[in-house]
Amino acid sequence: MSPTIGPRKLYQRRCREVRAQMSELIDGELDERSAAAVSRHARWCPNCGRMLASLRRTVEGLGRLEDEPTPVDRR
Amino acid sequence: MEAPRAPQTSGGVEDEDRLIARAKEGDAEAFGALADRYSTRLRRTLYRITRDCDAAFDAVQEALMRAWQGIGRFQGRSRFYTWLTRIGINEAYRGLGRPAGEPLEVDDMVGRHVAGWGRGPEGAFESREFLAAVEEALGELPLDYRSAVTLRDVDGLSTVEAAEALGIGERALKSRLHRGRMALREKLDHYFAEGYL
After folding, report:
1. How far apart are CA B131 and CA A15, in angstroms?
2. Residue-level pLDDT, tens digit, chain B, 197 residues
3. What's B29-73 look like in SS3?
4. CATH 1.10.10.10 fits B124-193, yes or no
5. What is the DSSP letter of B117?
6. In chain A, what residues touch B47 (CB-CB under 8 Å)?
7. Which B-chain residues 82-101 have CB contacts (< 8 A) with chain A?
8. CA B160 – CA B169 distance, rounded (Å)
């Protein structure tokens, strides 16, 4: 008899898979089906939803640094 | 020997392909125009990677010199800036003594509560405080991850270009990028939790 995976383990495994794909989702590098599946999970799972939202904010913030002066500009 | 300076021109921005073609024929003014176009951007990028003003200055200067000497070998398969960045990164890494990359263990927090950052006040995520926190957190990433995130997210290179500039494959770039972003997100989580933002 093969061991069964409980719903909690299954749920966490899906969260782990989704989180590993979040960067590719943000970069538009997932195929349509995978992107829809990750987005759907993030809408349904509060923790993954918050993680995706804050990861997006992080990437957007990095993008805004491009025009920010650095100490090397002040030399 | 110094890399050539750009000519003072009154015209508009000259087509990059034309400048490259002229530079390949030995036209120092054309190369100078290319150098002027990209040196500030490259200096900022290399500063963000090295976190050292002198190292960034030296690496850009050396990269421009090497690019001028090697422009004949530029075949146009990538953008000029990507090619120049790869030279610059090699110089910067050489200046840093090629430190060994530290592996970054990322906590994906599965099974634990993930805090929300909230909607925040108007413009909170565009504020100086937030950007300063992002910059500081970026500076704390291990070099390999900092380079990947800087090139892809700050400098705006594509995944292919960032991988090429670092001399690594796309898969490796994506892995470093995702781990770097996740580590940054976690560091910023602490800023929110501690009420700095």
Report:
1. 29
2. 455 554 444 444 569 999 999 999 999 999 999 999 999 999 999 999 999 999 999 999 999 999 999 999 999 899 999 999 999 999 999 988 766 567 778 877 888 888 888 766 667 788 888 899 999 999 999 999 999 999 999 999 999 999 999 999 999 999 999 999 999 999 998 877 766 55
3. HHHHHHHHHHHHHHHHHHHHHHCCHHHHHHHHHHHHHHHHHHHHH
4. yes
5. -
6. 70-72
7. none
8. 8
Phi and psi at residue B177, to the nearest 5°: -65, -50
- DSSP class of residue B14? P
**Which of B136, B140, B138 has the alpha carbon at shortest distance from B151?**
B138
Does the CB of A19 have a partner CB in chain B at under 8 Å? yes
**Looking up tokens 């840093």, which residue turns up?**
B96
Q: Domain extents for chain B?
A: 16-95, 124-193
3-state secondary structure of B131: helix
* In the block, residue with structure tokens 């850009």: B60
Q: What is the CATH number of domain B16-95?
A: 1.10.1740.10
- The pTM is what? 0.88
Helix %, strand %, coil % of chain B (to 5): 65, 0, 35
| Residue in A24, A48, A54 nearest the CB of B174 | A24
